[in-house]
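debug: dumping io for the single-chain case to check the tokenizer round-trip. Nothing else runs in this session.
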Amino acid sequence: MTEVWFYHLERTGLDQALPELLEKTLQRGWKAIVRSPAAERIEHLDGWLWSYRDDSFLPHAPAGEPAAERQPILLTTGFDNPNGADALFLVDGAEPGELAGYQRCVVLFDGGDPEQLSVARAQWTKVKGQGFSVSYWKQQARGWEKQA
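debug: decoded output
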């Protein structure tokens, strides 16, 4: 069954946290989907993941690009899983949709945004009620700590 992990961003923003988590996902040999409800976020991430660090990049493509199904990381606003991803990353309050087929779903939310906090709480309640294994991770000075 899919594990659902909630990441409460307090010390860094999405642009800093997401690449680190995607790197760990690829190191596991997994593919990933990053889903946002906003096409503007997908466009931003498409540029950002090529240049977030001088000595590295994350191989990816937005959905709809040629051979998108072969990409290790697919950026999308859609609910399908064309690259057979093992991990689903939800940003900007994106809905999880069907979680069958994913090993892990990671919900990233900004602790300084009341709307994102509200959406994350509702998502927590929903997936926990559906019987998924749920974890809550909070940013601390020394890194991520599992709180629940």
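debug: round-trip ok. Residues 114-129 form the longest helix (16 residues).
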